[in-house]
Amino acid sequence: MASQQQRRQRAVLVLHGFSWTRPPNVERSLKYVPIAVLSAIIIQTIMVQAPDGSLGINKAFLCSAIVAFIVARISKSLMVTVIAGLLFYWAFITFL
Questions:
Q1: CA-CA distance, 41 to 61, in Å (whole number)?
Q2: Which burial class, exposed, middle or buried, applies to 25 when counting CB atoms under 10 A from its CB (0-12, 13-18, 19+)?
Q3: Distance CA 61, CA 54 (A)
Q4: pLDDT at 14 over 70
Q5: Quick one: which H or E segment has residue 64?
């Protein structure tokens, strides 16, 4: 259970914001967090587990991810990338 003193310290941090400076090596390391989290989410979506415990690949998600990656590299637009990935996924599951 948090004591009254600990609650006050937390409240001060929340109310006044986190304004302390971090060392440069911590700043450099934190830049990799979003890509690491996104990679984990994408890999988890692409990999599927069969009832017997073996791992497989969801081809629709894999192809959509590849198309989205290519579109992202070319367009540099998040909106275009999301739309292209979703359209390709829809086309893949509808026509193939």
A1: 12
A2: exposed
A3: 18
A4: no
A5: helix 59-75
